[in-house]
Each structure stands twice: as C-alpha cells, then as structure tokens.
Amino acid sequence: MAYNFTGKRALVTGGSRGIGKVIVKDLIDAGAEVFALAKTQANLDKLKYEIPNVNIIAVDLADWDATRKTVEIIVSPTGVRTELFEKVMNSPDLKKVYDEMLVRHPLGKITEMKDVSNAVMFLLSDKASMITGTILPVDSGYMFMKMAYNFTGKRALVTGGSRGIGKVIVKDLIDAGAEVYALAKTQTNLDKLKSEIPNVNLIAVDLADWDATRIAVENIGDVDLLVNNAVFFDEKIADYSFIETPYEFLEQSINVNLKSAFNISQVVARNMMKRSSGGAIINVSSLAGLRPFKGVSFYCVSKAGMDMMTKVMALELGPHNIRVNTVSPTNVRTERFEKVMNSPDLKKIVKQIRQRTKKMKHGHF
C-alpha cells in the first residue's frame, strides 16, 4: 500500500537497528519527519550514514527523567496540555448508584474476601492437581462449595497477609493445618494479626526492597504453598489519567504488585525444585489485569504483567510438579471497601468507579 505521512512527525524508539530501523526508513519514505531514539551513539551514527535525513537522539531509556526531557523537546516546548481525571460530585441518589453497580455483578452482590480465599484454597489443594497456568476471575459470578482441605505438614507463605484478603487466606490455611508465615510491610498490622491468630508466624519486610525480601524469604526455609497477595493500591491516588500518572506510582506499583511476586517466586520455586517436592503458587491479581480501568493505568499494567508471569511460570515450572495459577477478584468487601462505602467522599468515589467501568461488560469472561 502507498502511505502519505507528509507533515507528520514520528518518533521511533530502538530505531537505530533491526525492526526499528526498517520502520524509520518506511516512515521517511512515506514523507514523515522521523526521530530515531536509541542508547548507543555508534549505532545511531551508522543509521545516519545510511539514512541521512533521519534525526538521531541518544538517550538511555532506563533514565526516566532524561528520557522525558528528551521527548518533551521533540514534541515542542509547549508539550501536551492535559487535565486531571474529572471529579464530579453530582449523583442525586447514592443508593441507586450503588444498586446499579451491584446489578453488573452476576449474583447481585459484592465479592466477599471469603470467596477469594475459597478460590485460593482450592487451587492450592490436590483437588486442583490438574490445573495450572489458569487465570480465575472471582467476580461474584463464581460460587465455591465449602470444601474440607488438609494442609497438615505443609508450610505456606502469604504476602500482604496482615489484613484484608491476605488475612482471611492466612486464617483458612491455619485452620486447614498448615504452618503459615504472613509477610507484610507494617509491623503494627502484623502485631494485630498475631493477637487475633496467635499461631501465625510474622515477617516484616518492605517488598519494594529486592535484596531484603530475598533474605527474609530464604530465612523461612522450605515453602510448599505460596500466595503472592501483596498489593500497592489506594483509592486516594486512583484518579490519575494515563498522561498524568506520576513515575513514583508506576514504580511502586511495579515494585510491589509485580517485581516482589517475581522475586519471591524465584526463591520459593528454586527451593521446591532443589527438593524435588513440587508445590503450588497462587498469584492474586485483579480483573484490572484483564480489562482496562480509567484512572489506574499504573495498577492495570502491573496486574497484566502478573497474569502473564503466571502463564510463563506454569510453563517452565510444570515439569517440576509446581503448579502456578492466578485468582483475579473484582470489587471485594475488604476493610478498605467498607471504609470507602462509609466515606463522606462516597459520591466522588462512586463517580470514579462509574467512569472507569461504563464501557465494560460485567460478568463471566
């Protein structure tokens, strides 16, 4: 086909060689003004020699600030004018809005923490011995029968285990006979958990700290069951458009929601392989990894990464009798959910939820 990009300005990252180089040449042949961005100046110089009318930019894409400054110069000093996600507080009937939200759930109810824990317990157990690499949505459309599980002699690690969904999973695992370690960042939350569930083992560590996390997990010893449940998310910051999302939110979300699960799973799976014991790993993700939500791009990206990590882990660890699955809840009645629903800012929060989900079809996937 013949393309005409005359008057258009194009930016191609990784444009000095390979696929990027071909794209650069095709865009220039179609009349575009092209900027090729790459890390290595020598490769860019070679590109310039072969395609004289290309603009070349050398920058390390791993350097967030330097990359932003470079691209901002390309798009012109005025940049792009954006607005923060609009916060409209004009719903006349909050109960009606809330009821409308419930109608979108197949069973007409908000998912309970116990629903999520039931799914986790099932996938950890031998009852799911033939299931690996799956992503199981828990959206009030699934009902799990009460089953009896026996994890006696098993050691389990639950990250984000001090409250919310993690706390319920910790309790269910202990009730099923497992020796459980609850890992969380905040010592006060862990101490409160200990007062309620005395026979839980506590580990306080910042999951964003790669090395400290590895040491803490290695010190546990053999782990048979792993639940990567820790999460970075807060409704107070869930109103940034993609354009306005600050680097620190993306960084923290990737560090806690994705990299920590990757890190801990490496340590645990390596030990499982060394012992030839097999095991089960559950990654607690979110429907935000499967469907886009407005205002929380940093969260969606991290959970989508977790979902693909599950599939790759299942593929590579399956031959070692290690099963890896994902549980993906939607709105869950956690302590945070109850706090939000009783908040004086409920009108604003419900408006945000409606904006994020108005184009989604809710129900089974």
Automatic annotation (TrEMBL):
PANTHER family: D-ERYTHRULOSE REDUCTASE, D-ERYTHRULOSE REDUCTASE-RELATED. Homotetramer. It comes from Tegillarca granosa (Malaysian cockle). It comes from the Eukaryota. The lineage of its organism: Eukaryota, Metazoa, Spiralia, Lophotrochozoa, Mollusca. SUPFAM superfamilies: NAD(P)-binding Rossmann-fold domains. Keywords: NADP, Oxidoreductase. InterPro entries: L-xylulose/Carbonyl_redctase, NAD(P)-bd_dom_sf, Sc_DH/Rdtase_CS, SDR_fam. Pfam families: adh_short, adh_short_C2. Belongs to the short-chain dehydrogenases/reductases (SDR) family. Gene3D superfamilies: NAD(P)-binding Rossmann-like Domain. This is L-xylulose reductase.
